[in-house]
Design a protein that fits this description.
There is one protein chain. By secondary structure, the protein is mainly beta. The protein has one domain: Jelly Rolls, CATH 2.60.120.1300. The strands form 3 sheets. It has a 5-stranded antiparallel β-sheet with strand order 1-11-4-8-7, covered by helices on one side. A 4-stranded antiparallel β-sheet has the order 3-9-5-6, with no helix packed on it. A two-stranded antiparallel ribbon has the order 2-10.
Length: 166
Amino acid sequence: MQITMIKKNSFFLLLGVFTALISACSNDTLFDQVEVFDGNTWEQGEQVVFEVEVEDTLLPFDFEITLRTTTDYGYSNLWIYIYSEAPDGITSKVAQRINIARPDGSWIGKASGTIVESKLIYRTQAFPFKGKYTFTLEQATQQNVISDVLDIGLRVVTHKGEPLDT
């Protein structure tokens, strides 16, 4: 039984990586990267860093943070800190909640086998400067270790919805 679950988790992990690689080939995707957690745990103070190189300061982009947990994850959400640093050195820090389950225990995101994929999506204006932007994610709970967390990813895509206010 344990071997079957390991094979199933490995299959879905490879499927997720393959999907990310395929979608990264889209011209609408500026950045798409996933970081896997060793031992399916995210320790307090452990940071995940994404470096995004921006050349276009005219197009607006959408951000998508994808968190994948197992169905054994013990909470209905996960709070994270998002630190950002622009090429001009300006930094910011915000706390965001990624919702994973409803109060009745049903999954909010996509569930497949023993894996639950939850997303945090928000729009932004165009990047103000060309250059390297650094986004750092850190779990923002009071737990020293959060178990049953498989990976977290950042995807930045060209905004396709209604025009944004300027």
